[in-house]
Structure formats: structure tokens, C-alpha cells
Design goal:
about 210 residues, about 70% helix
Length: about 210
């Protein structure tokens, strides 16, 4: 079989599987499970890079493959998946269509640019990246579930407009020339804890616990 198969890509693939399953759930109208899948994809993305870098004997081809496969999976998880979720909500048609198109388009642009710059950076230095240009696409895995969790505090007929407005804002931030500091281990732990809190919040809101 073509490709590379080792533990360095396991979490990346799990995140992708979670998002594809989440897409099926939003189509079925099962919103809580869909947002949980988005959250799980985000948690996988937080740690997949560190796991990949822990594999010291990776070949150059495996490193480049890792960069490419990570971005391709990120496009599905944090571009296509949010677009499907956004299109699911009923606001005026031009707004929901624009929000869905923009989040995929801007995610493609950002991820493609990141790939080019990352390959160049790795050729010139062995230092770990300290900051990103543009808002990382993974942030949708925290922002959108938080919006969903707080939807009960927003009038039902207004919520879709708020959701689509945030989608458009996030999309623009993907490609804005702004520097975003890379998360430290402490930052990752905080985000992971937030993810758990969101997860428990979903369960409570939906009377699962």
C-alpha cells in the first residue's frame, strides 16, 4: 500500500474519522454528537504534532508526508466539517452560503500557505515553531462548540445569524497577517481542560448526565 503507516499519524487519522462521522451526524440532525466530534478532532490535533516529533527516526519523506496529511485532514476537520454544520442552520440563504464557502476557502489558503512556509522553515532551522501567521484553523474546534453550548442563552431565531457571523469572522482571521503565539504545554493543558468542560457541559445540557 502507498503511504506511511506508523504511530506518528494515528491521532491525525482519528481526528479525521471523528470529523467524517460528525458530518454524518449533523446531516442526521444529531447536533450534540456532531459538536462532540468536532471537539474530539480538535483535541487530537493538539497532540498529533508532538507525537509525530517524538518519533526520532522519521525519514525526510515521512516528515513531509506528515505535514501534508496533517493539513489535508485539517481541511476536512476544521474547514469542510464546520461548513456543513453552518449550512445546517437556517438563516438567510446568502449568509449561510457565504459563511460555509468562506470557512473552506480561507482554510485552504491558510493551510496551503502554512505548508509552503513550514517546509522552508524546516530546511533552514531545527528549532520548534514559536508562532503562527493567521488564526490556526483548529480554533474552530473550541469556538463553535462553545457557541453551541451557549445557544440556550441566545434567542432561537437569532442564533443562526450569530453562528454564521462567527464563521465569517473566523474565516477572515485565518488569512489575516497577524502573529499568533504557539501554545506551550501549559496552554495545551488549559485547552484540553476546556475541552473536557465543554464535553461535560454538552452531556448536562442534553440530559445525558
Amino acid at each position: 500500500m502507498i503511504g506511511f503507516y506508523n504511530y506518528s499519524v494515528i491521532l491525525t487519522y482519528i481526528g479525521l474519522i471523528s470529523s467524517v462521522f460528525g458530518i454524518t451526524q449533523i446531516i442526521e440532525g444529531n447536533e450534540p454528537v456532531a459538536f462532540l466530534c468536532l471537539l474530539l478532532s480538535g483535541i487530537c490535533d493538539l497532540f498529533d504534532g508532538r507525537i509525530a516529533r517524538s518519533m526520532k527516526n522519521r525519514t525526510e519523506h515521512e516528515k513531509v508526508f506528515g505535514i501534508q496529511i496533517d493539513s489535508l485532514c485539517d481541511l476536512v476537520c476544521f474547514g469542510v466539517f464546520p461548513a456543513v454544520i453552518g449550512y445546517h442552520y437556517q438563516s438567510v440563504y446568502p449568509l449561510k452560503l457565504t459563511a460555509s464557502i468562506l470557512i473552506v476557502l480561507c482554510a485552504v489558503i491558510r493551510l496551503g500557505y502554512f505548508n509552503v512556509m513550514e517546509e522552508e522553515r524546516q530546511r533552514t532551522t531545527t528549532e520548534n515553531r514559536k508562532e503562527y501567521q493567521g488564526l490556526p484553523v483548529t480554533t474552530v474546534a473550541i469556538i463553535l462548540p462553545l457557541l453551541f453550548l451557549g445557544k440556550h442563552n441566545i434567542p432561537k431565531d437569532i442564533f443562526p445569524y450569530v453562528f454564521h457571523g462567527f464563521m465569517i469572522l473566523i474565516s477572515v482571521l485565518f488569512i489575516m497577517k497577524i502573529n499568533v503565539k504557539k501554545l506551550s504545554l501549559k496552554g495545551i493543558f488549559i485547552l484540553f481542560t476546556m475541552g473536557i468542560i465543554i464535553f461535560l457541559g454538552y452531556l448536562k445540557v442534553n440530559h445525558i448526565i
